[in-house]
Design a protein that fits this description.
The complex is a heterodimer of chains A (187) and B (176). Chain A has two domains: 2-21 and 108-168, Alpha-Beta Plaits; 24-106, ACT domain (Alpha-Beta Plaits). Chain A has helices at 38-48, 76-85, 120-132, 156-163, and strands at residues 13-14, 17-20, 24-30, 55-61, 64-72, 102-114, 139-142, 147-152, 167-168. With 187 residues, chain A is α+β, with helices and mostly antiparallel strands. In chain B, helix 1 (35-47) runs antiparallel to helix 2. In chain B, the strands form two sheets. In chain B, strands 2, 3, 4, 5, 6, 7 and 9 form a seven-stranded mixed sheet that branches. In chain B, strands 1-8 form a two-stranded parallel ribbon. In chain B, 26% of the residues lie in helices and 39% in strands. Chain B is built from four helices and nine strands. Classes of the chains: A alpha+beta (187), B alpha+beta (176). Chains A and B meet through helix 1, strand 4, strand 5, helix 3 and strand 7 of A and helix 1, strand 3, strand 4, helix 3 and strand 6 of B.
């Protein structure tokens, strides 16, 4: 990490830790008209099939919504099947097929940095340093205490090395990797 | 090794719900190759003492991204606007927009990141009630919903159908 030491006037920011996700797939879906209920329908069907969304965020394109979410790589086949089965007419999408309004990115990994202390300085410097190093950021979202950044899964370790110039981790800290998973089942 | 724990709840329990009013939403649409530039602009907001309630970043059309940032500007509105204006000043850097006031509802609960149906439980009732969801974020154990002025109380009412909201939510006010 020493090769990324910050300039003296730009001190590193203390954080509590960094966590990695397992491999994920990211989807971004846009609403095509105010009558388009496809996104709600998609969320409903994913819940019905017990597919967990480890990440969801949305924003507005004028009057229309755009949602970005991540699922475990193993669940992506099921999500694709839902897309295939959704009728654009039933969902109020005026016959517009999903192709062209859904973006799918495979091999995503979430880098979770905590705590963010609501600090734009930490968030901005994380974004800037990853981007300057050529690591594409596919999406991000803040939670009550953590910053979740979605990047390419194979680049998670490299990203942490780059962030060594920005954040100060506790001594002997190495990123938490998922050693087990929690799955909610219904009985 | 597999460990099975059994837990049942008729409605999704949460640790609490909070509403905050008097916030501002800034959205920035920019070419993806200007990511480092906008990261630096956002970092500079921290230098003037602004704190965020929610930030998300989404891909738009090919090669474009959008930041949605919900801030309590706490009287620093002019400085924040100046930083965004300067950030977008050069051609090709992107465009920004401010919406204010906006309101925020946030809630958090046990293992939300590991459980299916949580995002749907939070978002579907809001959309069904035709409340415009300006920005949202569900990550970690929390859910943030940014809505227009005078909508936060309606959002809380909607969420009472899916989450256990026993008391009146904590309320914050930011005079930004």
């Amino acid at each position: 990490m020493d090769e990324h030491l910050p300039p003296p006037d730009d001190p590193r920011i203390d954080i509590g830790g960094i966590k990695f996700s397992p491999e994920l797939v990211q989807y971004t879906c846009r609403q095509v008209s105010s009558a388009d209920r496809s996104l709600s329908e998609l969320l409903r069907q994913m819940a019905e099939r017990r597919i967990n969304l480890s990440f969801y965020c949305s924003g507005r394109d004028g009057e229309l919504s755009r949602g970005t979410f991540c699922v475990a790589a193993a669940d992506a086949v099921q999500v694709d099947r839902i897309f295939d089965g959704l009728s654009p007419d039933e969902a109020g999408a005026n016959g517009q097929p999903w192709t062209g309004r859904v973006e799918r990115i495979t091999r995503i990994g979430t880098l979770t940095i905590f705590p963010h202390r609501r600090s734009p300085t930490l968030l901005g410097r994380v974004v800037a340093s990853l981007a300057e190093a050529g690591i594409p950021i596919h999406s991000l979202c803040t939670s009550i205490s953590a910053l979740s950044v979605n990047i390419d899964f194979p680049l998670l370790d490299e990203a942490v090395a780059i962030l060594g110039a920005v954040v100060d981790l506790p001594e002997h800290h190495s990123p938490f990797r998922p050693e087990f998973s929690i799955t909610q089942i219904k009985r | 090794m597999e460990t099975i724990a059994v837990y049942w709840e008729p409605q999704i329990r949460i640790y609490g719900v909070t509403t905050v009013t008097g916030l501002s939403l800034y959205t920035v649409v920019f070419p993806a190759d200007r990511m480092a530039h906008w990261g630096a602009v956002i970092a500079s907001l921290g230098q003037i003492g602004v704190t965020f309630h929610l930030v998300n970043l989404q891909p738009l059309a090919i090669g474009e991204m959008r930041f949605s940032l919900v801030f309590a500007t706490d009287g620093r509105e002019r400085e924040v606007r100046r930083l965004f204006e300067e950030g977008a000043a050069e051609s090709g850097h992107g465009a920004w927009r401010q919406t204010s006031p906006v309101e925020m509802v946030y809630l958090h609960g046990p293992h939300f990141q590991d459980r299916y149906g949580i995002a749907e439980a939070a978002i579907a009732p809001v959309l069904a009630a035709a409340i415009p969801l300006l920005a949202s974020g569900c990550s970690g154990t929390s859910i943030h919903l940014a809505v227009p002025e005078n909508c936060a109380a309606r959002v809380v009412d909607c969420l009472k159908g899916t989450f256990v909201i026993e008391n009146r939510p904590a309320v914050g006010r930011h005079n930004g």
